[in-house]
């Protein structure tokens, strides 16, 4: 039994965030929501492994036909890993498409993902739980990234999770509810809508779980895989302000829709007393760790977004 298996959840009274309200619900949104429901129902009937295998197989073959994202993936790989030839890049991107398909299929099975996730060095989390000390956990969109917040919840951590709201308000609402059943109900959307809530969660003494690998247009420019990338500095700023440890999480997909999450040592950087310089230095150190994770298993990271200016 994990600490989170008790009947009384610490966050039982925490209200869930509202879905997107900055855009009206259109007919296309309704059709997308119906499609999502059908995909969810099919995946539940098929079972996690069969659904993951089938949708992974399908996207591995169909994804490369989507020229815009697939071409962007080639451009990103050419930029940061110029030693790879075209065939090697193509194989990495096909692995990525397969991983993405698997992750989508597995979303209908978030209630079982925790049972399929092995946590290495879990004592680093349970010690924080026992002592009531908060921390900031950082990672990226690796393997099935939902597994990390689920694992932290099962270890009894009191935390808030930062997420990117879905473009479709109806789908966004479904995702919020699905996540709330297996991870923290304290869910904070990225951007201006969640900025104040993020600060409030930190003041409440909660740990924070953040995926910091995606581009933030109004972030700060620090290297990722050797090239400047606009990066969200929130994790570093909150860590420095609250004197909190920054702990990287690495999630790896294993065969059979199973996962291994490693809780790494806190990131250590020397502080100069210059807040801006220290924030940039810590953000760069976070990107350095995430870059190592990417290089270890490039086929389990999302290469399709515009992470670098030339991407």
The shape, in one word, is globular
Distance between the termini: 45 Å
Hey, roughly how much beta strand do the residues contain? 5-15%
Radius of gyration of CA atoms, rounded to a whole number: 19 Å
The share of residues in helices is 40-55%
Instruction: Encode the helix/strand succession as letters.
Output: HHHHHEHEHEHEHEEEHEEH
Tally the helices. Answer: 11
Major β-sheet annotation:
7 strands, mixed
Number of strands: 9
Strand order, biggest sheet? Answer: 1-9-8-2-5-3-4
| Estimated structural class | alpha/beta
How many structural domains? 1
Low-confidence stretches: 1-6
Average pLDDT rating:
94
Structure description:
The protein contains eleven helices and nine strands. The chain is of the alpha/beta class. The chain has one domain (23-300). Helix 8 links the parallel strand 3 and strand 4. Helix 1 (27-46) crosses helix 2 (48-62), helix 2 (48-62) runs antiparallel to helix 4 and helix 10 crosses helix 11. The model is unreliable at 1-6 (pLDDT under 50).
Which descriptors apply to this entry?
single chain, 311 residues, alpha/beta, seven-stranded mixed beta sheet, 11 helices, disordered N terminus
Tell me the layout of helices and strands.
Elements: H1 27-46, H2 48-62, H3 67-80, H4 86-106, H5 110-113, E1 117-120, H6 123-131, E2 136-139, H7 146-154, E3 159-163, H8 169-180, E4 187-189, H9 192-203, E5 207-211, E6 220-224, E7 227-231, H10 234-242, E8 246-254, E9 258-263, H11 275-296
